[in-house]
Each structure stands twice: as structure tokens, then as C-alpha cells.
Write a structure and sequence with these properties.
single chain, alpha+beta, Immunoglobulin-like
């Protein structure tokens, strides 16, 4: 009887659980397909994420109604990093706030529902003409096309990007000093008071 039991075991099929003989080959093939898909799709997914990351700041600024004021030293063409610009937003009234520049000479202003913005230099000399000093710049124009203010201090005229307002300034010590007018050599004629009648 023992020999019969051993013979029964030896005669048992080589595979189990009623699967066909090639069942063990399926999982490795599926795993290989998954790995190939991962390596193929990973670069495309990474590029999509990178594109979304680049586009996010611009969309965020547009949603928050932010305009960037860029202040440039007209003599050196370098950013002014220590200015506290007077900024006024107009909705129903004007309220001026001194706002500091960052390390790139930029001030980001949340405009909210304001329609115009007015800027005035504080610690530096403004390079705009006297007639432009108190201009109310259109926020819509700044967002759509950008605005570069006038510059009487140099020939620099960079084109502003959409959402950007460029202002030129120079240190107050660089303001040109004009000489006193020449002394008049005309003779001084004394005027005697008239006698009362």
C-alpha cells in the first residue's frame, strides 16, 4: 500500500490549482509591461509638471491683481534696492503708502479693485518730467502692455513687460547743480522818495 501511495504522488500533474502549465509566466510579463510604461510616461509627466509650475506664478498674479513696479538707477542701469516708494491706489479716494523695494528693485502691489496707480519717489530723485510726476497710470494698461515712465536722467528706455511699471531714479547727490546766474553790471540808480506836496 505504501508503494501505491508513492506511485500516486509521483503520477500527480506537475502543475497545481488547475492552471495551465504556463500560468507562472504571466506575472513577470505583466511586471515588465508596468516597468516599461513607467519609464516611458515618467518624462512626459515631469515635463507637464514643470510647465504647470512655470505657469502658476503668472496665473496667481493675475488672479490676485498684482502689478510689479521696477525701479532702476538711471545712471548705472542697476536696480534701486533701498527705496521706499510712495504708492497710491485710486478707487474712490487716494491713500499713499511707502513701500520698500526688494533685492531686485521690485515692489509688488496688490491693486484690488483700483483702476489707477500713482507713484512718487521718496529717498531718490525722480527722473520723470514735472508734468508726469503726478500721473495716474492705468492699471489695465499696465497689466495688458506694461508702462515705462519718462526718463530725463539718461537715454535708457527699456520696454516694460505686461504687468510691469518701470520708474527711473537717481541718488539726490547726482542731481546736476547749475551755476548762479552771472552778476549784473548794470549801474544801480538810487530812487529818491518823492516829496509830499
Amino acid at each position: 500500500m505504501f508503494h501505491s501511495f508513492v506511485a500516486l504522488i509521483n503520477d500527480k500533474p506537475k502543475h497545481s490549482w488547475d492552471f495551465p502549465p504556463c500560468w507562472y509566466k504571466i506575472p513577470p510579463l505583466a511586471l515588465l509591461f508596468v516597468l516599461i510604461s513607467m519609464f516611458t510616461l515618467a518624462p512626459a509627466f515631469a515635463k507637464t509638471q514643470e510647465h504647470n509650475a512655470k505657469g502658476q506664478p503668472h496665473d496667481t498674479k493675475a488672479q490676485q491683481h498684482i502689478v510689479s513696479i521696477k525701479i532702476i538707477n538711471a545712471k548705472t542701469n542697476k536696480p534701486v534696492t533701498d527705496e521706499k516708494l510712495n504708492v497710491a491706489l485710486r478707487v474712490d479716494q487716494i491713500g499713499s503708502v511707502a513701500m520698500p523695494t526688494d533685492k531686485d528693485g521690485i515692489i509688488e502691489v496688490k491693486t484690488g479693485d483700483a483702476t489707477t496707480i500713482r507713484i512718487l519717489s521718496n529717498m531718490y530723485a525722480d527722473c520723470r518730467s514735472r508734468g508726469e510726476l503726478y500721473t495716474d497710470y492705468s492699471i489695465t494698461e499696465i497689466r495688458n502692455n506694461g508702462i515705462t515712465t519718462g526718463n530725463l536722467c539718461s537715454d535708457a528706455r527699456p520696454k516694460a513687460k505686461p504687468g510691469e511699471l518701470i520708474l527711473f531714479e537717481i541718488p539726490r547727490i547726482d542731481i546736476p547743480r547749475y551755476p548762479h546766474p552771472p552778476a549784473s553790471h548794470a549801474p544801480i540808480i538810487p530812487v529818491e522818495p518823492k516829496e509830499k506836496p
